[in-house]
Write a structure and sequence with these properties.
The structure is a single chain. This protein has a single domain, classed as Barstar-like (Barnase, Chain D). Helix content is about 45%, strand content about 15%. It has three helices and three strands. The protein has a three-stranded parallel beta sheet with strand order 1-2-3.
Length: about 90
């Protein structure tokens, strides 16, 4: 599934999670953290099944903390893809 998220008003990691968790259907039982995201991707605990391609539009307009955290989320997506062989893409646009 291809998902586009508008990141221009994000200032913190919490702002990213507020958009990302419902977009991929991440269970509420998994906290908003990178380890839980990795587990949810690898174990396919989301409502959205792979392939998952997420693009963050207008990220350059977001706050520095949100931009830095988005980079870490991209690394988790890359790690999950390497672990499973599935398509997990997180684009910073």
């Amino acid at each position: 599934m291809r998902i586009r998220l508008d990141a221009r008003e994000w200032r913190t990691a919490d702002d990213l999670w507020t958009a990302l968790r419902p977009a991929i259907g991440m269970p509420t039982s998994h906290g908003p953290n990178l380890d839980a995201l990795f587990d949810a991707l690898v174990a396919r605990l989301m409502l959205v099944a792979p392939p998952i391609e997420i693009t963050l539009d207008r990220l350059a307009e977001a706050g520095p903390a949100a931009i830095a955290y988005a980079t870490r989320v991209r690394e988790v997506f890359d790690d999950a893809a390497a672990e499973t062989g599935e398509t997990f893409v997180f684009r910073l646009a």
